Amino acid sequence: MIDAHPFRWKHRLPTAAVALTLSLGAVVAPATGAAAAEPTLPSGNTAYRTLADYESDMAELAAQHPTLVKPITLPYKTTSGRTVRGIEISNNVQANDGKPVFVDVGMHHGNEWPSGELTLEFAIDLVENARDPYIADLLDRARVVVVPVVNVDGFVRNRRQNDTNTDMNRNYGLGWLPLSSAGAAPWSEPESRNIAWLLSTRQATVFNTQHTCIQVVLYPPLQLAAGPAQDTPRLHRLASAVAAQYGPTYRALPSAEDYETTGEAIDWAYYATRGLSITSETCPNAGAARTYQTQVLDTYAAHRGAMLEALETTADSAEHAIIEGKAPKDAVLRLTKSFEMYTSPYAQPDGSVRPTSFTTTLSSDLDVVQPNGKFRWAVNPSYRPAPAYQADGVRGNRTGFYTEPWILTCERPDGTVLQTARVNVDLGERVEVDLQQCKRDFHRKDLG
Ligand SMILES: [Zn+2]
């Protein structure tokens, strides 16, 4: 394997120097020798991982903690044929039981190595501290999905783009424009389709994508012309809480106010799923060196606090919706919806300037595991925010939501659909669905 690894040495600064780096203005007394303890990572690592390190660390976590950690393989291999991997973390992780989900990914940009390190270190932290009462409670109430290296090809070559020279954070379809590195078409890249799959097949209350190197936490929209997102107060609250953990110099703001782009992950993610979608960018203070020490070791404690904010928001029932009821034990419940979304208008091959449409299909499922058939499913609200990007162009400053129910099916494990229901449920709401027909027919031999 080609390894573009510039930091192969075990990197340790003298203790006093570390204490000074850590303090950010706090009083330290290195001369006395009583300096603050060096920051350490949950893994104990002192240097950047290679791709092989990421893969073996995740495999080992899953093997050693099968009730807490489940490996996942994303469906699309990269342009150069590499596999993109992640892990799910929760108490009783193997049960597909409807807990709210926090999706946390790193390294859309392959040269932003701290973003992958911070993402995997947080996962290890949760697993290693799963018996701590505070962490245990969060892992009882929520599921965390971690993909530390989205752009695997870019990472092994230590460059921003993937192997088709596409910027992975310009290729998502909503509002897409043919910018110089946005890819040949919306969703042309396997890496962006992987993340779309991840978010389309789970009910992610919160989605965080980790980057370097600015001190900001960003939320939709990406373009000023789009106008504010419908959930701006909620997005700003989460982004502010995350930014506050990173430190007083970090700002929380709409992405468009930082700089305008199109085709980023958070825009599609929010407008398709209504999950609270943020981009967390970390960077050392101005003038400080950008090293493993400053960007990973010295940043991790703040990152931990930031991600715990995101996880607490995920677990908060005010930030998602609940569908509950009784179904036959061993039934599979599925929630789907399908809708058209649009790029920005751009010059098409036929010479006209118009948007391209694409279909987003959300489909997630839950296994009814309780002997009494009771289930409780934390889902995103059925009311979907209307995006600025429409069939007839950019129509900004929208305030409405589509009244577009979840289609709930109650199925046998073999996929036979026994009942279909339409469910409208708003943020913070709880609705009970009546699945009597499914219960009646579940064990009948003459159906299906
Ligand atoms: Zn980036």
TrEMBL record:
<feature type="active site" description="Proton donor/acceptor">
    <location>
        <position position="281"/>
    </location>
</feature>
<keyword id="KW-0121">Carboxypeptidase</keyword>
<keyword id="KW-0645">Protease</keyword>
<dbReference type="GO" id="GO:0008270">
    <property type="term" value="F:zinc ion binding"/>
</dbReference>
<keyword id="KW-0862">Zinc</keyword>
<dbReference type="GO" id="GO:0004181">
    <property type="term" value="F:metallocarboxypeptidase activity"/>
</dbReference>
<protein>
    <submittedName>
        <fullName>Zinc carboxypeptidase</fullName>
    </submittedName>
</protein>
<feature type="domain" description="Peptidase M14">
    <location>
        <begin position="47"/>
        <end position="314"/>
    </location>
</feature>
<dbReference type="GO" id="GO:0006508">
    <property type="term" value="P:proteolysis"/>
</dbReference>
<keyword id="KW-0482">Metalloprotease</keyword>
<dbReference type="GO" id="GO:0005615">
    <property type="term" value="C:extracellular space"/>
</dbReference>
<keyword id="KW-0732">Signal</keyword>
<keyword id="KW-0378">Hydrolase</keyword>
<feature type="signal peptide">
    <location>
        <begin position="1"/>
        <end position="31"/>
    </location>
</feature>
<dbReference type="InterPro" id="IPR000834">
    <property type="entry name" value="Peptidase_M14"/>
</dbReference>
<dbReference type="Pfam" id="PF00246">
    <property type="entry name" value="Peptidase_M14"/>
</dbReference>
<comment type="similarity">
    <text>Belongs to the peptidase M14 family.</text>
</comment>
